[in-house]
Every structure is written in structure tokens, then in C-alpha cells.
Amino acid sequence: MPTVLGLDSSTQSISAVILDTGSGELLAEGSVNFGNDLPHYGQPSGYDPSGARGEVHSNPLMWLEALDLLLGGMRADGVDFSTISALSGSGQQHGSVYLASCFGEKLNSLDPKKDLKDQLAGCLTRKSAPIWMDSSTSVECSEVASAVGGDDVVCAKSGSIAVERFTGSQIRKFAKTEPEAYAETGVIHLVSSFFASIMAGKNVAIDHGDGAGMNLMNLASGDWDADLLAATAEGLAEKLPPVAPSATRSGPISFYFVEKYGFAPDCETVIWSGDNPCSLVGMGAARPGKVVISLGTSDTLFAAMPEARTDPQGFGHAFGNPVGGYMSLICFKNGSLAREAVKKEFGLEWSAFEKKALAETPLGNDGFMMLPFYEPEITPRLDTGGPVFSEEGSHRAAQVVRAVLEGQFLNMRLHYGWLGIEPTRIAITGGASANDGIAQVIANVFGVPVDRLDVPGSAAIGAGMRAAHAIGGDLESLEGQFSQVQAGSTIEPEVGAKEVYDAMLPKFKAFLDAKA
Ligand code: XUL
């Protein structure tokens, strides 16, 4: 049974897991944090903090240095990469990398004695990569939507209305503001396909999962949509790699990794996908039935869908499901962003979000509510200029901790109805999912049990499972090995909680609507 590698290039770090699909064991893991391990880029949270007017960009050279550092560090720790039969990866969604036409040839002739960053720096036609946190392209979104006949058309074609962080409007902005650099660009990759190309030593396809997060792919045909491309930027069709099913194999690993890190020359590479599609697989939710909440920098709620559905309000998205069919995704930008802001403001530890500390305040917080939007929110699209409280004055830390959590999950409850799914259980993942207090608030607000899975980093695990699946592994047995509910981790809703939050939901909606 093969050993596989799953990589995950996320907002703040790049990490790896090695899975033994024979024993079901996690053989090794490693991670490089951009802020802590590569402080010389001045991007402590993985992006340039000085971006103005909603611009959030990262340095692709930092990502490349991190990949070399990760693999070099794991090898120095004794990891034997020669046993790996296949690899795939996960990338933060929507981010884009702009490269000259020579990129493909350069990948084919990388010198293992030098590093990736120095050899590929000359291929960048844009020094920075806009990432999913960018909200600077409202004008471009309107332009694309009106060129094709309105947001309903964009949504029916691509699975989402024109969205600021999605790649299409970002490409349009680049073509408008830096036309010469755009003209020099031979290929535009997503974070996922950029890394997948590096691993394969040639330009490879964008997968249906991540491709759907661009407002450029036609969800029904699974190919680029000529009208959306034409509305986005001139000559775009020639600059995009093809789109392909997520299980597409892209040939043996690049010589660079064989020579430098000891990979086997016949290690198969599989195209990468986005972090949410990979997490869907890692959480054992790729077949319809399970609703997942991922608690990261942003929080997301996702589920496999038997058929494509779109959100009439325009906040949620339909993406390709990496194992076939579709998935829904709703992204709430103020996830850990908001929890961390509260923690910092009151000088708290994470223990203040645990069950014991939450017990200091009643379910429903005596009616005290918060719109926890420290950054302009995506779902709903709303810039409140910071958090908003239902009552003026000073508040105790414990009240605000409960308010931020209740606000986040009531907001989720208000916005997932279009999926047409009434969850009977919710699986949670991501850094904050280990916190029992946060898990308890989710169980209470939704009124269903919440499970934690035995997976540390579902995106990387999902990427590894996708690699195994693409070379013939059985999905159900992979789920049995890597996506099991952690024994004793389930949190049941507290008695009476459902009634409290059913009554609170319309009040929260009115509070939110008043600010919209
Ligand atoms: C999803 C989204 C985020 C990023 C985070 O649409 O923007 O979840 O994928 O990495």
C-alpha cells in the first residue's frame, strides 16, 4: 500500500504530512511558518501588512523559500522521501501568481544546487500575489458583472457572483493598472497550480475545485467560460493553464526534488486543489451527508452537494468537489481574526474561551450581542468599521468572549439555508476546533452534536488522500483510516440551548439588518 505526501500552502504557513495508506499511520509532519521562520520578508501573518485600500498581497518568493526550508528541514530530521509513491497539495484559494512564458522551461531545468526562490524570481511578472483577503476589486467585479448581463449571470455560470477576492477581478485590476506587466505575463497560476507546476517540473492544470473560485470557470462544463474570460481581461485565454478534474495525474516529480531531497524519480504528482476542497476530503465529507465548519483565519462552512446549487443572496459559492460533483462553501472572513482581536484587546489567554470561562455568562448573554466584524466581512458583505455591540458602554471580557462566539455562529446559522441541508451533526476542524468552549457554542447555536476528527490539518491530510485516491486508492477506506471521529471528542448541545438560540436568531438578524 502506497505512502503519500500531502502539502498545504496556507495563508500563514506551508506544511506537509506523510501518510501510510497501508497502516493508516501519519508517518511524519512538518511546517514552516512564514512570519516566525522567514521574518526577513516582513509578512508576519503571511501577507504584506502595509496594503492600502483593501489590498492584501503576499510575496511568492517567501512561499518558495518556505517550500525548500520545509523539505530540507524534514529531510534533516530523518524523513525518507524516497518511499513516497504520490503527492498532491492544497493551496489557499483564489490567490494568483503572474509569470513570464519562460516559467515552464525554467521549471524543467531547475538546478538542485540552487534554491527555488533564486531560480524562479526572474519569472515573476508581478512581484506580489493578491490573496483571498484582498477586498480591493469592487469596481472590477461590477465591470465584469455588467459586461456579461449582471451578477445572476456570473453566478449561474461560475457558481458565485463576482467576488472581490476571486481571481477574475484581481486579474482584471492587474490588466487595467499594469497593462505592460500584464502583457508580459505568459501564465497566471493559482497558489495551488503554481506549487503543483513546481512539483511536476512543468506547467500543470488548475483543478475543478480551486478553478471554481475564480469567476472564470463554467461550473456546468468544467471548462473556462469564454464570456467570463472576455469580460475579465484581453487575451486571458492564452494566459490560463487548462482546467482539469482534481484527480488528474501530472507525471513524475521534478528532477529538482529527486536530487535535492531524495524523492524517487517515479513519485507521481497529482494536481493540487484549494484548501477548502482538500479539507472536504480530509474531513471525510466528500460524499454528501456531512457539514463541516473549519475554524481558521477565516471560518468556512462547507458540504458536498449532489447537484450544483447557488446562493440567491450571493454570499456562498459552489465549487467542484475534488472527488466529483460539487461542494458548497461559505466563507466568513472574521474567524480567528475576530477571536484573536478580542483575546488581544482584553489581554486574555485562550483558556478564556474554554467551557469553564464561558460558564461565567449565561447562554444568550442576557441579550447582549455583537457583530464581530473587525475586518470588512464577506458573509454578509458588510463593513461596519469594527465590531458593533447591541449595548453601549464598557463590557466585561467574559461578556465579549461569549458575544464574539455567539455572533459568529448565529451569523453562520443565518447564511447556510441555501444549501438545503439540515445538519444532524457538524464536524469541526482548524486550529480553534480543539477548544471545547468554542465547540460547545457551535453545538448550542446549531442545536446538534459537534464532532472533532482525528485529523491534524484536514487540508494537508485531504491532499494526501487525494493523491492516494488518484493513483487508485479507495476513498471509503482512506476515510476509514484518516477521517475518523476522535474518541470522546463529541460535544452535545446543552439542555435548553436550542430554544435560547432559536429565539435569539431573529433578534440577531434584526441587529445585523439594521447595520446593512
Ligand atoms: C474561501 C476563502 C478562504 C481561503 C483561506 O473562499 O477565501 O477560506 O481559501 O485559505
Break the fold down into its secondary structure elements and pairings:
Blueprint: E1 3-9, E2 13-20, E3 25-33, H1 34-37, E4 57-58, H2 60-76, E5 84-91, E6 96-99, H3 103-108, H4 116-120, E7 129-130, H5 138-148, H6 151-158, H7 167-177, H8 179-184, E8 187-190, H9 191-200, E9 206-207, H10 208-211, E10 217-218, E11 223-224, H11 226-232, H12 236-239, E12 243-244, E13 249-252, H13 255-261, E14 268-270, E15 273-274, H14 275-282, E16 291-295, E17 299-305, E18 317-320, E19 326-332, H15 336-345, H16 355-358, E20 370-371, E21 388-389, H17 397-415, E22 426-429, H18 436-446, E23 450-452, H19 458-470, H20 475-482, H21 497-515
Parallel strand pairs: 1-5, 5-14, 5-15, 9-12, 16-22, 22-23
Antiparallel strand pairs: 1-2, 2-3, 4-7, 6-8, 10-11, 13-14, 16-17, 17-19, 18-19, 20-21
